[in-house]
Amino acid sequence: MNFPDDADGNALRRIAEHSDLSNPMTIDFMIDVPSERAGHDVARCASARGYSTRVEYDEESERWTCYCTKSMLATYDAIVAAQTELGILSDEFGGCSDGWGTFGNSG
């Protein structure tokens, strides 16, 4: 796999070690939001774009996160596009993209 030398490319290289990148996998995109209400506003917009969503509060960090989940091919371009899309829609509510993760598709 030939990925750019950045955080997303490095993550995809690690995932490729135990997953088949030619098959879809569930990917969670995290959106840092300033409040529960903002989280639900982001969730509503992301749901309209095909993401499954949930809003959670982390007592340790005292932060709200909107998790936007989608089954998709884990390509570099798709990951970057999803982060861009979610970053743009969350900006209106004071949110920002805060990374992504997956358990892959090896199981």
From TrEMBL:
Q: Which SUPFAM superfamilies match?
A: Hypothetical protein VC0424
**UniProt xrefs under Pfam families:** RraB (PF06877)
Q: Which InterPro entries match?
A: RraB-like_sf, RraB_dom
Protein name (database record): Ribonuclease E inhibitor RraB
Q: Which organism is it from?
A: Pendulispora brunnea
Residue span(s) of domain Regulator of ribonuclease activity B: 6-102
